[in-house]
């Protein structure tokens, strides 16, 4: 999956901006955060769990800075004078889509974490019998299918924002307001870029419904040389498919699955924390923006 940022620069390049020379400390901090996020994500097509988690927390910090910018008297005055313009409504709609996207992704991660923990518990109690393990393997696969559908919906939402920014109006009448609009616009593009990469990480790559034994072995052989490129979810998917088709009587297969599930649990826990932090920052920034435009 291509990163959103690479597509964005081709379709509607984000123009550079700057606040007046004697900027408030809030704007200087914001410009620094935007520069960090831009350098980290522009042109990136994939990322590991640690980088993604860092990106979520960095994005949360960016929206804290945006909230500070929105609450500056100069910003509030400028926005209040132009509150009925198309660009404001577009950004407000975009902020709602970001909130929904973050909340839905967080719920998917929580559901995935619970099903993975249920499977982990069942494998640890493998002496309890085959039926228990079968049920939890089925539950894990169902969660992955549900996540796949959710990811498709989220990508469709991102596509709507992509289309919206193609014809995004530029502001020329107020230098400060123009800079604020540019900040909000670029933050939205960076947010979409991070979520594209994040959703790509979460998307199932090799777990298929009822695969044949030969097709699975063939895939595992092809994947073997590139195992280092597989993320934590890919490894659990492979281990679960291996258990499903070749049985779980072998202790080595159970231990392999348990090890991968343990690593996955730590990753999903970090994602949950990052998404929760980002959700709060997005919500606070939206409330500030909404309050200004509605007055």
UniProtKB/TrEMBL annotation:
<dbReference type="InterPro" id="IPR004320">
    <property type="entry name" value="BPS1_pln"/>
</dbReference>
<dbReference type="Pfam" id="PF03087">
    <property type="entry name" value="BPS1"/>
</dbReference>
<protein>
    <recommendedName>
        <fullName>DUF241 domain protein</fullName>
    </recommendedName>
</protein>
């Amino acid at each position: 999956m291509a990163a959103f940022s690479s597509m964005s620069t081709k379709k509607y390049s984000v123009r550079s901006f700057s606040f007046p020379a004697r900027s408030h400390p809030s704007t200087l901090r914001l410009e620094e955060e935007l520069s960090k996020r831009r350098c980290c994500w522009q042109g990136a097509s994939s990322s590991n769990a640690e980088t993604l988690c860092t990106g979520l927390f960095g994005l949360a910090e960016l929206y804290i800075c945006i909230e500070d910018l929105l609450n500056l008297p100069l910003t509030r005055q400028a926005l209040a004078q132009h509150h009925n313009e198309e660009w404001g409504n577009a950004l407000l709609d975009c902020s709602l889509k970001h909130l929904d996207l973050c909340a839905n992704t967080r719920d998917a991660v929580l559901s995935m974490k619970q099903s993975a923990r249920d499977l982990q518990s069942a494998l640890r109690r493998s002496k309890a019998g085959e039926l228990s393990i079968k049920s939890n393997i089925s539950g894990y696969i169902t969660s992955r299918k549900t996540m796949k559908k959710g990811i498709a919906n989220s990508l469709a939402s991102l596509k709507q924002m992509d289309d919206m920014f193609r014809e995004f109006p530029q502001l020329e009448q107020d230098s400060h307001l123009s800079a604020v609009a540019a900040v909000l616009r670029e933050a939205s593009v960076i947010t979409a870029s991070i979520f594209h990469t994040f959703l790509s990480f979460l998307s199932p790559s090799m777990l298929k419904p009822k695969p044949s034994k030969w097709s699975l072995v063939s895939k595992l052989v092809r994947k073997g040389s590139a195992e280092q490129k597989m993320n934590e979810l890919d490894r659990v998917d492979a281990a679960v498919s291996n258990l499903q088709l070749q049985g779980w009587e072998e202790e080595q297969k159970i231990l392999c699955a348990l090890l991968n599930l343990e690593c996955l649990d730590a990753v999903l826990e970090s994602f949950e924390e990052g998404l929760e932090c980002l959700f709060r920052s997005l919500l606070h920034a939206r409330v500030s923006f909404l309050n200004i435009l509605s007055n």
